[in-house]
Amino acid sequence: MFYKNHPDNPEISLNLNRQQFTDSRTIGHLIHLKKSVKNLKLIIELTETPSLDELHRYVALYRSFGIKLSLDDVGTDNPWCPSVQDVLPFMDSIKFAMQNFRLQHRQGELMGSLDAWRQIADIYHLGFTLEGIEDKADVALAQKYNVKVAQGYYYSKPVPYCG
Length: 163
What we know:
Layout lengths: L1 E3 L6 E6 L1 H5 L1 H13 L4 E6 L5 H13 L3 E7 L7 H6 L5 E5 H6 L3 H17 L3 E5 L4 H9 L4 E3 L12
Parallel strand pairs: 2-3, 3-4, 4-5, 5-6, 6-7
Antiparallel strand pairs: 1-2
């Protein structure tokens, strides 16, 4: 979960797997949250690629309440493949996790993958979040790629939300 505290425009991002994304109780809680917090920007980060059937059944419901969808960890946990390509038109944004390349000892592939996913975001008119920003060199990289949203230890370690 990622939480930004803006007094007039709060933003919350929640990670959901496929089962949670399609669970009626979870959806009900998310709608309640969205309706309860004035001006809330609620983003659901999908950790697994949903099927087209799941998207067709649930996207309109999420959209009707202004809940945004983002595909998390593109390039690693959600690599380029037909199922990912199929869901991109339903997404509002994608998240590229540089830290996953580091953890998987795949640093040599990072720049090529980052180039490709930045281009994919542009082609599909998607927001692009770069996570894993750990130092000034990563900040410069985010600036080079015209990233509007960046996350990482350079800015802050994750903090629990206690509401």
